[in-house]
Amino acid sequence: MTYKAVVIGGGPAGYVAAIRIAQLGGQVAVVEKNKLGGTCLNRGCIPTKSLIAAVDKLKAVEDAVQFGIEVSKPDINFVKIQARKDEVVAKLVEGIHFLLNKNKVKLFTGSAKIKAAGVVEVENNGETEELLTENIIIATGSSPALIKSLGYNGTSIMTSEEILRLPEIPKSLLVIGGGVIGSEFAHIYGSLGTEITMLELAPSILSIQDAEIARRMQSIFKKRKYKIVTNAVIKKITEIEGGIRAELENGDTIIAEKALISIGRTLNTQNLGLEEMGIETGSKGEIKVNDQMETNIKGVYAIGDVVMKYQLAHVASAQGIVTAENIMGRKATMDYSAVPSCVFTSPEIAMVGLTEKQAKDKGIPVKIGKFNFMANGKALSMGEGEGFIKIVTNAETDVILGVHIIGPHASDLIAEGTLAVKNGLTAGNIAATIHAHPTLAEAMMEASENVHGLSIHG
Ligand code: FAD
């Protein structure tokens, strides 16, 4: 038989594309060499958020006394925390098996490679099989990036993969790279009592965030006694008795029990037959695609981390849906005008659209509205008044260009900002929308009112 499409990789890009093709009536196969759900479910979004949920519970217990609830000092059973995380992951992976089955998506286990136009070869334990297909979707994702001088050994010097499986809480952790992944692990282990040092090459951690938000998070981390070294250039890291030693270019040394390398992601594009097929790649090895997610070779599509547009699960899935619809004869186009992204620290951070600097660099006249959670009744009731919402608007049209949040449930609140940016709403539109009381969402309304100097509680 000839499939409508064969998808290589069963992560959030691949399995979503496959299900949508099946929903639209196409016969589709997924080839996965490891576990369904990819990085997101097995080594990324879900296990980290499951650990974060555990440290959130710990904080709730520690803070309970402020609410008049006396509790004794909590005991941390890290083995149980890890086991619960593994259960959550297993349940979700099982759920994807169920969904593929329900939608009659054929699953092949093995490593896939494009053999020729319309032919995918699957190799499993030395056995090979060829699948014939009208279309091929490359959704092979990414893996942790490594640099030789960082001395990766998978035990004391780890990536995000091994740190998720630690059997014990380390006494001290050196986090190399203060991006989203580094910050989330600093938050997880810092909350569990690990002494944290973060090294960041840039002048600030979380440098893709709005500068004010990044500064606030950095100061919150510092208040928690995390040591943060910015503009830090590492010469090398070596294993020593009982831990690691990092040497910096400026002569400083840092000793810790463990080190986490979180310096970015490398693309899983090797041995896929890209060169043999003449599939075009960019300077960083990313697979080049058009807005329909098609490569330069007709009928070959690429989605998710391998196209290196945004390395986020929800973008990967959106690209999967666009691809599926194009393959099934609908004309769909990727629209990146409103991509939310979140950092699951405490408080959370979330952003969508342009930062103040990006808007100004584009020559747009900018007007800002802000609102502090300290003046929001719900946030104060919850004991989570730390943080603010910042709305970036076009001063001439009032159109919302970006929303930046640091505060409680920022990752949920950003949905309203995303809807606003995507649909060209104005600050006036949000300000004129009645928001339920008492809710955190009222802070969005007040920040929008503040653009016009009319916030009631600000
Ligand atoms: P992947 O999820 O990497 O899946 C690719 C799949 O392809 C894998 O299962 C792999 O085994 C398979 N594969 C590769 N090569 C072959 C082959 N030749 N044959 C067969 N199968 C193959 N994103 C968010 O949006 N929110 C978050 O909170 C978040 N947290 C993260 C935390 C961490 C620690 C990490 C590392 C990432 C996080 N991400 C998060 C990013 C997110 O995980 C990725 O953007 C997403 O998984 C990309 O999806 P994908 O389908 O492109 O690739």
Keywords:
5-stranded parallel beta sheet, alpha/beta, 25% strand, Enolase-like, domain 1, 3 domains, FAD/NAD(P)-binding domain, binds flavin-adenine dinucleotide, 458 residues, 32% helix
Q: What does this 3D model show about the protein?
A:
The protein has 458 residues and is an alpha/beta fold. The chain folds into three domains: 203 residues, 3-Layer(bba) Sandwich (FAD/NAD(P)-binding domain), CATH 3.50.50; 116 residues, 3-Layer(bba) Sandwich (FAD/NAD(P)-binding domain); 111 residues, 2-Layer Sandwich (Enolase-like, domain 1), CATH 3.30.390.30. The chain contains 14 helices and 22 strands. Strands 1, 2, 3, 4, 5, 6 and 17 form a seven-stranded mixed beta sheet that branches. Strands 8-15-9-10-11 form a five-stranded parallel beta sheet. Strand 4 and strand 5 form a beta hairpin. Helix 1 runs parallel beside helix 9, helix 3 packs across helix 4 and helix 3 packs parallel to helix 6. The model has no long low-confidence stretch (mean pLDDT 97). Flavin-adenine dinucleotide binds next to strand 2, helix 2, helix 3, strand 4 and helix 9.
